[in-house]
Design a protein that fits this description.
mainly beta, Porin, elongated
Length: about 200
């Protein structure tokens, strides 16, 4: 998993550059009242070593989240994501990972068109598929603690709809992988954001 720290560092730097560009792209005038609720749905990619220590695994799937904004800067998020690989390492065995997470989100609403944000979420994860249930000595499906730390950028195309340009996160899981209970993963998501309601 030596690639994970390198990939994470590269995406963190890219995230910083894009956020700075977005903040300076339009006028510095303050945005209007923030939406009460943001609902996001989209594509999700995960790179990790969920089962075999040292073996990188690519998984693709979908994610969705609901965020309630208490004010212009602080909100609370529930995030549900699921990723899948039908043939890990080309061995014909499948792996599916689902995470359900909750925590605070901090948004920077100084621009009408772009909203960068950071968040730290905590919750649980479930891992299954024939990679866990097949073979001579199967580990069985797994449940574990999970957390993410990262951020992203929303492009507010219209008052009620936007684009989640990117969301990049460090994802920590603690599934039994046959070697240890520690996995350091990377997750990328992008999709559509729907805005509901307005704070007075």
């Amino acid at each position: 998993m030596k690639r994970i720290p390198k990939l994470l560092a590269e995406f963190v730097m890219l995230t910083g550059v894009v956020m700075l560009a977005a903040l300076s792209a339009a006028s510095a005038s303050a945005q209007g009242a923030p939406p009460k609720v943001d609902v996001t749905a989209g594509y999700s990619y995960m790179y990790g070593n969920v089962v075999v220590s040292g073996q990188g695994i690519n998984l693709n799937g979908a994610s969705g989240s609901v965020a309630y904004n208490f004010n212009r800067w602080v909100g609370a998020v529930f995030d549900l994501g699921t990723e899948y690989n039908g043939s890990v390492g080309g061995n014909g065995r499948s792996l599916g990972v689902t995470t359900y997470l909750f925590g605070p989100r901090f948004s920077w609403r100084k621009n009408e068109k772009f909203t960068p944000f950071g968040q730290v979420l905590f919750g649980g994860g479930h891992a299954g598929g024939t990679l866990y249930t097949g073979g001579a000595n199967p580990l069985g499906t797994q449940n574990s603690f999970a957390l993410t730390a990262g951020g992203g950028l929303d492009w507010n195309v219209r008052p009620m709809i936007g684009v989640r340009v990117f969301q990049v996160e460090y994802l920590r899981t603690q599934f039994n992988n046959g070697v240890n209970f520690n996995q350091n993963n990377f997750r990328f998501t992008a999709g559509v954001v729907f805005h509901f309601g307005k704070h007075e």
